[in-house]
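Whiteboard transcription, Tuesday session. T.W. wrote the structure tokens on the left side:
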């Protein structure tokens, strides 16, 4: 008997250990799948600091792009191009720019033309790699643009409230017979929270629960659905207007999650279910895809997990529950306030200034000794009034809060202030109503490499296209394609289409508006080559609010418009200056073995005579009644058997008769490469490049099957200009100064002690001016600071 009891006890212990081992291994499998997915799908974030948020047409938007990895918020140096757009209320792109990125980010401008309508516009920014994911991952910011020369059509007032009302059961679902914490959010058409109160009623019109919003139209209530019936919420706003909405469908079976504070150091996660036969569950937590908690355990009808807050990273963490089959069944968010930030001290030398007086700004960055002088800072100084108000958009709010939550976040700075009971409650409510992640669990758990059609651009701007059969519209592979940029310097890019028919050209030194010409070999002329727009057509789900202007803004709008016109009239030549980058001026083939400046030789009326008489590296020959241009294969003293690559101003030409018939007096120079030239997957039997005087083809007739496009390269850097009043003569100048943007610097330089000092001059525009500064350290600490000063007229 004793031996039997001993054996039974041993079997129970072994069974328990086996179950524990299985639970541990399953939890590890989830973590391993997640880590594999994370390594294959690096996540990027962009933040754009604009000089202000309200503009009139005729002004310029100045902006700085910060580029970081989405996990640690450290500056990235992978993608070299950011795509920045301005979208109107129909989600159509009205302005676009390709901004060059470096380890310090990038910067650019948008000039607002007089053709734009007044309204709220969405600025968004993304990289090519980010196009593989939802448009909700892109940076977005609302800007107000007013056209003072077009009548502003204000929307008519609506008698009935058009509220967006949503309910969010904690963990995901309402489950029959289990108490759930249900969050709700009520917002108006502009996305602003509405203060409400209400109740939950059943089919018999009995009131089961009463509730009211806490902050920004968000609140919670506890509710236990007794059956899978329909429940309704009756909601009343501050004006007494009522609306009714259905609650989410009640699930007959499932799981319910509840997250609570368990003292200052712990979180308690309680899991309840009405399912039977559940043996084990797994809890998984990550902070911006960095694994923090992985735990599995046997499960009864109710199980509690304890999470040490120190185990979680700063910012938003996702806490996910998996069942015994490793399927996600519940999820919610938790926010941990950042312990560190880039502290910036900012002050002006005076609180008040007269017109045309010098302002000295001092900024000091407090960070670790290793990163103090490696912070990237941008600063803007602009006038605020009833038209242009200060904004809550800053890099600190965005990286820690807005970028990791779905939808519009009203007053994100509220949640980052020092903790209090109200702030803690409001923050938890926000986490319940904005659940969102940058991946799908199905993609993670399949353990298969994800197919990403859009690749990063690590070496600069990439132009992409596709080769298809025009009759079937199916992709055609293994077709050699060429892309040229006419002009100086000579640039040629080649690419053989892949299995999906895609072509990809890595552009070198491609700045400003240019023309591009793309083509295939003559033997592939029946195929269709198209060039894609690099800007995505995907849109986010966020709504644009209506412009909020009325008659009270008329005076400020007129003043702003007049100031803009004054600047354009009197300072136009000064305020439009560009900084041109240093680029390699040599052709793509480098210094050719032979180069001929034709003006140094006797001119002949036919190209054939020119080539035969003194261009020793090119031998014209006829075959079947058509010319071929042969190049000697040096140093072997034999001609190439294949036709050489012949270019006219860098554009491949395959009809040599057109070259021979072209007027040689229009050709300035001929370069000849007298050896085999390898370019990617292509090899050329020598190169002959005919160059006109202006690099504009000089009327040379190209093949009509070519694809010709006007294409904007990387945006040229525009220099911010502001007049200085160093002398009495400058101060008394009668040239008006209508600037409302006094200073903009996207790359503020700080010294080894973390300090910087800049100066600028006030304009003739009096009022209150706001100084805003955003910053990011090399170790991922973000910071923001602002200060005010006054400009007043002083009697002389």
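and on the right, the sequence the group agreed on:
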């Amino acid at each position: 008997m004793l031996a039997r009891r001993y054996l039974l006890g041993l079997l129970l212990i072994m069974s328990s250990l086996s179950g524990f081992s299985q639970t541990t291994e399953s939890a590890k499998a989830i973590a391993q799948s997640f880590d594999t997915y994370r390594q294959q799908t690096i996540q990027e974030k962009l933040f754009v600091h604009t000089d202000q948020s309200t503009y009139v047409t005729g002004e310029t938007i100045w902006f700085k792009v910060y580029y970081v990895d989405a996990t640690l918020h450290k500056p990235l140096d992978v993608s070299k191009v950011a795509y920045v757009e301005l979208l109107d209320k129909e989600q159509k792109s009205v302005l676009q720019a390709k901004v060059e990125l470096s380890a310090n980010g990038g910067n650019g401008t948008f000039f607002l033309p007089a053709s734009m309508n007044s309204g709220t516009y969405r600025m968004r920014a993304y990289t090519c790699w980010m196009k593989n994911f939802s448009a909700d991952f892109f940076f977005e910011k609302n800007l107000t643009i007013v056209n003072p020369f077009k009548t502003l059509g204000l929307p008519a007032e609506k008698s009935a409230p058009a509220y967006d009302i949503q309910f969010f059961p904690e963990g995901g679902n309402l489950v029959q017979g289990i108490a759930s914490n249900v969050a709700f959010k009520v917002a108006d058409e502009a996305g602003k929270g509405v203060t409400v109160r209400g109740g939950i009623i059943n089919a018999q019109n009995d009131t089961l629960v009463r509730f009211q919003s806490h902050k920004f139209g968000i609140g919670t209530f506890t509710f236990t659905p007794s059956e899978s019936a329909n429940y309704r919420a009756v909601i009343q706003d501050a004006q007494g207007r009522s609306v009714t909405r259905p609650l989410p469908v009640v699930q007959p079976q499932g799981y319910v999650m509840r997250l609570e504070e368990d003292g200052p150091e712990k979180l308690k996660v309680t899991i309840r279910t009405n399912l039977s036969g559940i043996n084990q569950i797994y809890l998984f937590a990550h902070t911006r895809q960095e694994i923090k908690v992985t735990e599995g355990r046997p499960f009864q009808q109710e199980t509690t997990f304890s999470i040490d807050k120190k185990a979680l990273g700063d910012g938003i963490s996702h806490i996910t529950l998996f069942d015994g089959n490793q399927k996600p069944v519940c999820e919610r968010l938790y926010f941990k306030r950042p312990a560190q930030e880039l502290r910036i001290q900012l002050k002006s030398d005076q609180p008040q200034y007269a017109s045309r007086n010098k302002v000295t700004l001092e900024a000091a960055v407090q960070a670790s000794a290793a990163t103090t002088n490696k912070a990237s800072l941008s600063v803007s100084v602009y006038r605020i009034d009833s038209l242009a108000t200060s904004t809550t958009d800053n890099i600190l709010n965005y990286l820690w809060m807005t970028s990791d939550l779905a939808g519009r976040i009203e007053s994100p700075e509220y949640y980052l202030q020092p903790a209090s009971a109200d702030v803690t409650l409001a923050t938890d409510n926000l986490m319940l109503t904005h659940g969102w992640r940058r991946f799908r669990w199905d993609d993670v758990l399949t353990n298969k490499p994800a197919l990403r059609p859009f690749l990063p651009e690590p070496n600069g701007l990439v132009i992409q296209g596709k080769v298809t059969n025009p009759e079937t519209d199916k992709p055609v592979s293994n077709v050699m394609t060429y892309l040229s940029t006419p002009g100086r310097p000579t640039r040629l890019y080649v690419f053989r289409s892949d299995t999906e028919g895609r072509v990809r050209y890595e552009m070198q030194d491609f700045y400003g508006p240019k023309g591009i010409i793309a083509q295939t070999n003559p033997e592939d002329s029946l195929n269709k080559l198209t060039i894609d727009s690099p800007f995505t057509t995907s849109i986010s789900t966020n709504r644009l609010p209506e412009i909020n202007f009325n008659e009270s803004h008329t005076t400020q709008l007129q003043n702003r418009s007049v100031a803009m016109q004054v600047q354009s009239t009197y300072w136009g030549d000064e305020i439009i200056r560009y900084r041109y980058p240093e680029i390699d001026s040599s052709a793509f083939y480098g210094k050719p073995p032979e180069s001929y400046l034709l003006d140094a030789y006797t001119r002949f009326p036919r190209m054939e005579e020119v080539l035969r008489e003194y261009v020793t590296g090119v031998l014209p020959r006829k075959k079947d009644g058509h010319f071929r241009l042969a190049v000697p294969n040096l140093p072997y003293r034999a001609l190439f058997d294949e036709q050489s690559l012949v270019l006219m101003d860098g554009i491949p030409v395959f009809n040599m008769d057109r070259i021979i018939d072209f007027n040689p007096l229009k050709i300035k120079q001929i370069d000849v490469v007298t050896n085999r030239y390898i370019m990617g997957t292509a090899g050329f039997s020598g190169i002959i490049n005919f160059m006109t005087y202006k690099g504009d083809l000089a009327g040379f007739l190209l093949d009509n099957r070519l694809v010709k496009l006007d294409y904007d390269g990387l945006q040229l850097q525009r220099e911010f200009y502001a007049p200085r009043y160093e002398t009495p003569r400058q101060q008394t100048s009668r040239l008006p100064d209508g600037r409302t943007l006094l200073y903009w610097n996207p790359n503020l330089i700080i010294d080894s002690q973390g300090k910087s000092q800049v100066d600028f001059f006030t304009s003739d525009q009096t009022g209150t001016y706001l100084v805003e500064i955003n910053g990011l350290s090399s170790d991922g600490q973000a910071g923001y600071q602002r200060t005010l000063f006054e400009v007043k007229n002083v009697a002389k």
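Someone added at the bottom: The two ends are 112 Å apart (CA to CA).
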